Amino acid sequence: MEMIVTDFQRFFFSMTRLSSFPWSFLEENLQSNKSADLISDILKQTCLHSLCRKFPPSVRYRRLFLSELVRQQEAAGCEPLDELYDALAEVLGSEDAAEFCYKSYLLPGGDALSLLENVALISQGTTGLVTWESALYLAEWALDHPQTFTGRTVLELGSGVGLTGITICRSCSPSRFVFSDCHPGVLHKLRANVELNGLSEATTPAVSVERLDWTTATDERLQEIAADVVIAADVVYDPDVVVSLVTLLSNVLRGLSPEVLICSTVRNQETYDGFKTQLRSAGISHHAITGGVSHVFPYNRASKIEMIRLHR
Length: 312
Known about the structure:
Layout: H1 2-13, H2 23-33, H3 37-44, H4 50-54, H5 59-76, H6 82-92, E1 100-106, E2 112-118, H7 133-144, E3 153-157, H8 163-171, E4 176-181, H9 184-196, E5 206-211, H10 219-225, E6 229-233, H11 239-254, E7 259-265, H12 269-281, E8 285-288, E9 305-311
Parallel strand pairs: 3-4, 3-6, 4-5, 6-7
Antiparallel strand pairs: 1-2, 7-9, 8-9
């Protein structure tokens, strides 16, 4: 039962699609026991949890979640839970006009990292205000391979809302981490999320958030950062962007030869193949990192995700 409650908690705080929840197991338990104890346990670890009070998922999401719990309880003929109806009444009385909401991701040690993300996938002319699958995959890979980052300076390109970088800072002990992006709206949200998770220049690791335009980044600036590891997730999505990305990666590898890891959700095979072709044209070799990752975060694993290591 504890595993099921944990799964509900993980899915709820990361605002996973409700259809992905283990509702069938809950229904089976309610039908066999005619008791709402399991719903009570789930409620305590989701809507009534202190994390929900501090960093709540969207009003609409909580409304749908609680409504389904009520439906499951009533369908099984269990004795009504006052706290369930109270929670639903509270959320029904709340306004749902927010452009942003909190998503929280539970780390293996029991801690959680929370991010302020956009409700819409595309907003302010950018896709960088939400967390994408390849960022979650790269974060899971980092949790499986902390030695890649421990004691090292890490530069992240296209950090977005910060999920991957914050996971590495919280769990992999880098000496310094540089988040970077270019879009003003993304940078504003990224700085807020970094601070939200207790990270700054004064913490360990030392953390900075920088505007890094791939078309104008200078060799001098890259040398100043002096990254031992360079990472990026979901940055290969537009042929025009790929050109400047490959130029930047070529400059990165020409300097201190850091370890470079690129993780991509392959949505358009032609665009992704074009990225690899441009890498070869720039004299950059690559090989795929295989082996899979531990399933820490809930997300759609049916997507084609590839992670590659670059080198000259």
